[in-house]
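Technical note accompanying the year-one report. For the benefit of new consortium partners, we illustrate the data format agreed upon in the data management plan: each record pairs a sequence with a structure-token string. No post-processing was applied to the example shown here.
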Amino acid sequence: MANTTHNLTPRSGLVLEGGGMRGVFTCGVLDSLMDRGIRFPYAIGVSAGACNGLSYMSGQRGRAKFSNIDLLEKHRYIGFRHLLTKGNIMDFDLLFHEFPERIVPYDYEAYERNDARFEMVTTDCRTGKACYLSDKRDPKRIIDIVKASSSLPYVMPISYVDGVPMLDGGISDSIPVRHAMELGYDNIVVVLTRNKGYRKSEKQFVPWWAYRKYPALREMIRTRNQRYNSDMELIERLEAEGRIIVIRPERPIAVGRMERNTQRLLDLYNEGYEIASNIDFITTL
């Protein structure tokens, strides 16, 4: 990305896509923003974007990178052994309890002091619809929300927020640009974890046995790729019109959703940091 200038105003919004371990690109972007003291009045994150966004909102520079690279290298928290032993392809006990409580404690007080609005996207299993949730005062509920936002279908169990069964926000709203605009934020920066022009296959198979209690959820999973591609068309059109700025990897990436190669992850983190650093932010807040 060539050097770009973006004016931060009260109507500026930051939209963070998910993508599993590809979210280390977003970690690099957010660390670049924090190194320069750049804060948005509104941000919204989906799945990995919600996890990484929380550290941005509390101002804990490097925390998301540590969880995605250093913690993975030490604990190998991704793999089918976790799926077989705990029914989850990731060690959620480590990620959502030991990590925020003991290893690198989350700064809930700094998060609450931050005047910026932060939303995390989940999918209501009963309706299949997106939920845009926010909390700054209840640590348990904050963790419940971010865990639900990150709970991928099939390989992770259903999570609960306020007693409501929920799964990954990417099922219902992978890149919530429309939602941010509906709230009045029209000066938007979108952080994607795929290169320009990327599209998903239109076909999405849903096994007959999966989520039979939740037919609306099944339909949302089946049609997810179509909505994702529609979102990408919108984003690229808005970008071409100069209405939004998009930060994305410059080429197809070798990092998978469940990537365990920490050197690849570090390279992608560095790419995100470098690309974001080429954007000059002018604050008019």
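Partners are asked to follow this layout when depositing records. The first helix runs from residue 24 to 35.
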